[in-house]
Amino acid sequence: DAGITQSPRHKVTETGTPVTLRCHQTENHRYMYWYRQDPGHGLRLIHYSYGVKDTDKGEVSDGYSVSRSKTEDFLLTLESATSSQTSVYFCAISRDRVDEQYFGPGTRLTVT
Amino acid sequence: SQQGEEDPQALSIQEGENATMNCSYKTSINNLQWYRQNSGRGLVHLILIRSNEREKHSGRLRVTLDTSKKSSSLLITASRAADTASYFCATDAFTNAGKSTFGDGTTLTVKP
């Protein structure tokens, strides 16, 4: 498995609270991605990063922000969690923008 | 917007049979990738096929790409119970490079 870890793996939080998910890689890949996956569906891109401090929005970025201060870490923040953000969140990395992506194990987030 | 869509949504076969699943997309692409996801796990990359390629093989997997029809197929030969998983196609659109769009997947069940 590619060296990607996500923390926490499970989290339950209340509506209105801030939440930060962390993705850590040991592969020194330039590109990092955050996706969400809802039951019975594929992945939808939230944000991605193409280098330290370089990020861009994906398909479903509203309500989410990201930061990448080091090559190995990509943080996803929900400023004020809502029930619609209950989902499984996956981080992925790739060497180049049109290369295959390697996925982390996922974080299951429940917003009550 | 949904770029890649898999068909069928669900497929059930006996061990030893071949499994074919299809992916259709809407706009011109740089490449198309197939991923597998076992229940509760992250996605695993299977094959990447570029827009100038027509067919690729990897072990028991065969992927074809028809850019004139905007479609791809994944064939798994001599299926095994361990192939039971969800399979997703991801397209990297020419006009949106680096932002892969995933379909909702095909759930494959291989009965022993």
Let me know the number of strands of chain B.
Answer: 11
**CATH architectural arrangement of chain A:** Sandwich
Say what the CATH topology of chain B is.
Immunoglobulin-like
Shape of chain A: globular
Average pLDDT of chain A, to the nearest integer? 94
Remind me, CATH topology of chain A?
Immunoglobulin-like
Structural class assignment of chain B: mainly beta
- What is the typical, i.e. mean, pLDDT of chain B? 91
| Termini Cα gap of chain A | 33 Å
Account of the protein in words:
The complex is a heterodimer of chains A (about 110) and B (about 110). Chain A starts with a strand and ends with a strand. Chain A has no helices and eleven strands. With about 110 residues, chain A is mainly beta. In chain A, the strands form two sheets. In chain A, strands 2, 4, 5, 6, 9, 10 and 11 form a seven-stranded mixed beta sheet that branches. A four-stranded antiparallel beta sheet of chain A has the order 1-3-8-7, with no helix packed on it. Chain A has strands at about 5, 10-15, 20-25, 30-35, 45-50, 55, 65-70, 75-80, 85-95, 100-105, 105-110. Helices cover about 0% and strands about 55% of the residues of chain A. Chain A has one domain: Immunoglobulins (Immunoglobulin-like). With about 110 residues, chain B is an all-beta fold. Chain B has one domain: Immunoglobulin-like (Sandwich). In chain B, about 0% of the residues lie in helices and about 55% in strands. Chain B has no helices and eleven strands. In chain B, strands 2, 4, 5, 9, 10 and 11 form a six-stranded mixed beta sheet that branches. In chain B, strands 1-3-8-7-6 form a five-stranded antiparallel beta sheet, with no helix packed on it. The interface of A and B includes residues 41, 42, 59, 101 and 102 of A.
